[in-house]
Write a structure and sequence with these properties.
alpha+beta; 22% helix
Length: 135
């Protein structure tokens, strides 16, 4: 969580994104890895309120996980100046059985974090308990 906080605060006021890594078939996230947000400005939207994980980062991290006997368990991203809840845009892009950690960053400081999952492509997304274990 510390690494995600640093990433989210440094990326403010843009959305940041990355991967949640752990043992395959586990609910325990052991680490996070950053991804590049390649969302481009289009109309009223852009990297300030959208994210798009660079597919090259996805391939790289997936291969690294395979080599280490780990898996991508989910994804994280920030909501600058917005609540840490799943939006319709988030739900529409969601993959089943992946964790989605959303953090809220206001004025450059992380203020909230929540986890969501979906059972079907495109949502709906439901909340999951978030427990942070140190060590």
């Amino acid at each position: 969580m510390e690494a995600i906080t640093i990433h989210a605060e440094a990326g403010y006021p843009h959305e940041i994104c990355g991967f949640l890594i752990g043992a395959a078939e586990s609910d325990l996230v052991e680490e996070s890895r950053r991804a590049r947000n390649i969302a481009v400005a289009s109309g009223d939207h852009g990297p300030h309120d959208r994210y798009l994980i660079d597919p090259l980062d996805q391939i790289r991290v997936d291969r690294e996980c395979d080599a280490q006997g780990k898996a991508i368990l989910g994804f994280y991203h920030s909501h600058p100046n917005s609540p840490a809840r799943a939006s319709i845009t988030d739900a529409n892009a969601a993959w089943p059985d992946s964790f989605y950690l959303i953090v809220s960053v206001r004025e450059g400081k992380l203020v909230d974090a929540n986890v969501f999952v979906t059972q079907t492509y495109g949502g709906p997304m439901g909340p999951e308990p978030l427990e942070i274990v140190k060590g």
